[in-house]
Specification:
By secondary structure, this protein is α+β, with helices and mostly antiparallel strands. It has 7 helices and 32 strands.
Length: 553
Amino acid sequence: MQKQEVKRNEKKIFEPTAGAVHADDPAAGHGAGAAPIQSGLTQGAIFSAAANGLGTSYATGATVTMPASAPLYAIWEDIPPIVTTGTISGTVTDGINPVSGATVSLTASGSVYSAITGTDGSYSIANVPAGTGYTVTAGKSGYNSGNITNVAVTANIITSGINIALTTAPADDSSGYTPARTITVTESGSNLFSGSKGGIQAQANMGNAFSDSVEVKVTNADEGSFGLSSGSEVYPFDISLYRRGTNTKLQPREGYAVTISLPVPDELLDRKEQISVVHKSEGGRVTTLASRLEQKNHVWYLIFEATDFSPYALVVSNTVPGNEPADVPAGVPYYLDADGSQVFIGFAANSKYIAPSGVTVLFMENSQSFTDVSGHWAEEYINFVAEREIFAGTGPNTFSPETGMTRAMFATVVGRLYERSYGEIKSSAIHSFNDCDYADYYGKYVDWCAENGIIEGVGASQFAPGRAITREEMAAILYRFTDFLGALPGDAASELHYPDSASISGWAQRAALYCQTTGIISGRSGGLFAPQETASRAEVAAIVQRLVEMVMK
């Protein structure tokens, strides 16, 4: 128990010059020339003739002869009130992991004392009346409540280690599916799932993934720029997480996911094996998520892990069979923009394409004739990029295949490839580099690539747009771009095998592994990666075709 501090007080009550004074009447003013300084002291006070309050004391009623130099003091003690409350603390877990947002409480003298656990599952309840035999209870939606009995609270003491373990509440599958544990799902207008026999469910490790009670809303959504194959059907919807009872959107903490189970719409049941789940991030990245089909009580569900919440879509793939070439439209896909101009789709290969939403896709032949590419090793690749107008010629009939590619040119190729499939890239008001002419052809593409982490500068806010791009710089940009698209392969090599691997810069090592695994950038003579050498227009044409075919495979 803490020692109570006692405060010693003193007041000068009488300043005599000489003579006698009664100790029980300090304000009487006896003594020649004396005048009272303080009156109204209670009888029983102890009087001292020493200036520091620690000299001779006199009992009440005593007659004191005071020297002229000795003022009279009254001394008393302030004793603080006795502390009658204490504190308890501890943690709440699910047996392994902390449980945040749990309510911990106890009742004492008819009053309830409580606290909410933090992200680490800890709590502290202060000002609990001292006593014994208390029961401390913890509870949270989705868990069976737990308690600790016979807890003693000692005055002015923190009693720690009052730890409580909760168990998961059993799921109620009477409706044919396992409902969301601790997450309320509100389907408020999704036409896609409104007629389904089963319900939508969302499950997560709530204690770690969120600090708040969560509700999920599944609603209709405008068709976004989702990945489409030729003849595919797209069914968009929106999944959003909210702090329960508010309009505040939430995202799970990094490293945690929410398991979403969607009943397969009745109209798609006969093609359920062809359904994939596609997600579009705020930055425009379109990703096909890993999903599985599972039947519960005669209802088919599509189950996937969600770590980010913004528009989704079910995509039913209707790939044209390869043995029926008559069904494959001739030429390359394109659409008309707002002013009626033809826009050839960048990501288009193997009878598949990715097109912006809301456009009508058409097909036409768009062959180009260059006098300087006939018989060139890259002739096929050059025709591929030229037909899609990803590259333009350097003259009416020339491509200049051996001309070098600058950093600005390569950023333009990446940006143009993206916008022809996903939608227009607009100029930014915020620029990352101070050595770029943002009114030039490459300006908006450099901005877009920088904003999305696809390109980096060369230091001190410099991009060096006119410098020839090196092969390792190109590899790094391609790696980041593919990652942005959500199309990185899952089986990348773990070790570089180029004879000159040691000369590849550390920041480009991962990108070089990606290129080695996919074959997007082939080695030069002797299998060399040649990281610091520059790339020609012909080499970049080959790289672009391989990238498109990899994404569209």
